[in-house]
Amino acid sequence: MAAFVRGVSLAAVVLHQAGVHAGPACKRFDEIYDDGKDLCETMWGTAFKYETNEASAYTMWFFDASNPNTATAQSLGKLPPGGHSSCGLQYYHEKAPAPKSDNFTTCHPWKKSACCKESSVETVSMLTDAYGPEFRWDRCGPMSQECERFFVQESCLYECDPNAGLYRKYNSSVYDPRCDDGATQYDAAYSKANNCSMNTWEMHRMPIKASYCDAWYTACRKDHFCASAEGDYFSCAAEYKVLDKAAALKDQLNSTMIEMAKLQDIVAKSNNGEPEGGLSTVAIVGIVVPSLVAIAGFFFSCCLIRREKMGKPLFDQLNDDRDGPSGGAGQSYGVRQA
After folding, report:
1. Does the keyword Signal belong to this entry (predicted)?
2. Residues with Cβ < 8 Å from 296, sequence gap 6 or more?
3. What pLDDT does 244 receive?
């Protein structure tokens, strides 16, 4: 019983050190980003480029009868006159662009031809939650409507616009599935030997109209956002993922401590010879041993969290040491980055 108590106490200490209460700093947009250029070229990594020559740039939203981004892509020599025959990006995307139903309203500008599946963009909340709680854009509190609409528009561009796929970082001319740890053809030994890491969902340097980026900054300047890595969305998501894991472990630990208190009461009654509530030695062992196993699980999980926060995830090393291609029934893609 004493070992059980010590185990719970030590788990609480380790969990605290893992950073249950420490989250990324939240600041106003105008405290994180200098201007629209800084916002567009920092928040999404290298996905977008701020372009002052707007004749050679794309928009993230439109009200035209046809998608103006397609004409831009053709003028830049990125797309043949025949238009799009496939969707370059692959995550929740369709294989080829297609018209959508009358229920397609959240990303309605792309109704005539979209790469997104209707089920993945049906509502704003589905866009917000699509990539897990760590990628919610409102982790610093509810956003103003004028600010949030820009996040919805960016999501619709990424999910639905066939032209976004023209800026896939690892396009078909260079993509090697043996270097993609989310592909069924992934070969860990080959990837390690050639020092290659690829995916089919990452964008790179899509030029966005400067006026659009500036409008985004103006709309959001008083709202709050995660300030980690100067406002990099994906650095923020990585921190939130660790924070959420730690919070879940804390809840589990609290539940175990409640059960421990009940067990202590039962043991005390047994030691005092009270018939009511007393348990045999076998019954007590049957309760304590599984609890100790649970505590061991807490220790292991806490260690994983601490290693992730230090940038040394345990399973990355295990993955590096795998021999041969990874298995799986179908292709699975990693968390979206840009």
Report:
1. yes
2. 7
3. 83
